[in-house]
Design goal:
The structure is a homotetramer. Chain A is an alpha+beta fold. The first copy, chain A, is built from six helices and four strands; from the N terminus they run αααββααββα. Chain A has a four-stranded antiparallel beta sheet. The N terminus of chain A is likely disordered. At the B-C interface, α2, α3, α4 and β2 of B face α1, α2, α3 and β2 of C.
């Protein structure tokens, strides 16, 4: 058993002495993400705008923010909001970012016979109805995306657009 | 292999002496699930109501019960019932709970061109035809859901509704 | 829209008039499963034996029964039992049946350097610790398997063995 | 495409007039989640406590909160935090809740030869090192869990414990 008893310490010391971790302790985030990518502060602005809009609507939303790389940055589910919308809101944001367009635009394009019919089964599941919108900075550069799910599609689109607008406004 | 021989006993004694397990031995379920969630007793009532209704119909059903969190609570497959319906019945129950509505309501909403077209590929697969119904208590709070699969959709819906009614009746 | 309006009725009539469904209405299960396979009645005996044993132990179990084909036949989760054990109990039963041995036997065989090292990542995840046991009839024919999960591994093994014994006893 | 043009409006009006949605507009969350489950307000407290602790540590964390059913409730990733930790933090929280114990307790139990060796491949992947902690209310009832990932395991555990403490303190 001795050999195993030391393993955790050994691994721990490896990790602690790695250059990445050492650098993080001086200035944790330096060099670790692209300048201009959606930040936690922006994600917070987006989530708050979403919840505010949902309350105006009387809806219960799941809201997901992904960064420019399509990776989850922030998420919240309002009390009582659909459990199904955890996945749907995340996938809406990922779909919007990965195709660089609002998911609303996929709705007609993915019906039988239309150009992208069947696209929804790629990428582990894409969402082809509205509620995913792009996040852009003041120069129009895509910095991430938002997905909202919890009401009618019209509700979801309105929430996602309110988020994107709040993020854009924060640059001005 | 000798060096491993002592480990299981060692770990076992660790586990047995942990506060979590100790508390469980005094009162096993205390604090481990939210009051009001569907219980094993209620699930049994639901399964029995399902089998009774299926026998009246002359159908062979798979029946799945999930709790308020959408996690499988109980399941049974009648002799000769469809193997495909194992997954379908579980997903019907999870779909109903995760959208807080009977799966029948998704049937029209998910056809090509309709609002939720494509929703079935989210969440690892949702079921968009009838046979998933919500389980509610006497106050109308959602405590879980049931999925029935094995006959025509009309059969499945009838079985699932009979279950939900049996659960509701048990509160009165 | 007309074209779509008729579709549900059309499909329904197809289903209703299919020979399979028609046969089911006369004698629903005839020809639909192998003689000797685990039945719903046997599964019920197994689940009840499991719950009885768990109560003696003061543990909270998830118990899954699979048939000779490795397909889920019945499942129950006691109130407060681990959510993780939904999947673990089902996989224990499937592992036992798919290798025709109790999962306890995999424990030593799957450690690094042993013969089956790494087997647990096949089949979408196998369980390589105890709690999966075979169900056999009076002739020793494997008719299914049981997986129990919720206590220590020793607890789980005891519950699964009690189940297998109860099923075997029911043949005598 | 004309023939589809009317469908969305048609379905939308169906949805808007459904009793479920109508009830939601009066009191959106009524009956839709079990009383006592982790709320969005509690999740926010947990995320803020996590970020505060991470800043003290000089680490960059991903933090995930799941509810009593193991479903994602809230998530944030600090700028520059590991992308791998999106999944790890979510799975840490789900692992803790689904086994009702901190993930630290799995570390020794899952080494080769120990009792739960191989458990990490079940449930679509569990995390067997520290950083997942339970969230409890003032009565000791489990109301969810938190997963923190981004530093050394010791960092992660410290962050997760700070979160759990902040949630518990909010009840007093």
């Amino acid at each position: 058993m001795k050999k195993f008893a030391l393993l955790p310490l050994f691994v721990l010391s490896l990790v602690l002495s790695s250059p990445v971790i050492a650098a993080q302790q001086a200035d944790p985030a330096k060099g670790l993400f692209l300048p201009g990518d959606v930040t936690a502060d922006l994600a917070k602005i987006a989530l708050e705008a979403a919840v505010k809009k949902a309350r105006e609507q009387g809806t219960l939303m799941n809201v997901a923010i992904v960064d420019a790389g399509g990776n989850l940055k922030a998420f919240c589910r309002m009390d009582g909001a659909f459990l199904a919308s955890i996945d749907i809101s995340i996938k809406k944001a990922q779909t919007a970012r990965s195709l660089n367009m609002p998911t609303t635009q996929l709705h007609d394009a993915a019906v039988p016979g239309a150009e992208l019919y069947g696209i929804e089964v790629t990428n582990g599941g894409m969402v082809i109805f509205g509620g995913g919108e792009l996040l852009k900075d003041q120069h129009g550069t895509i910095i991430g995306a938002i997905g909202a799910s919890g009401g009618t599609v019209a509700n979801d689109v309105e929430v996602a657009k309110a988020d994107a607008a709040a993020v854009l406004a924060s640059f001005k």
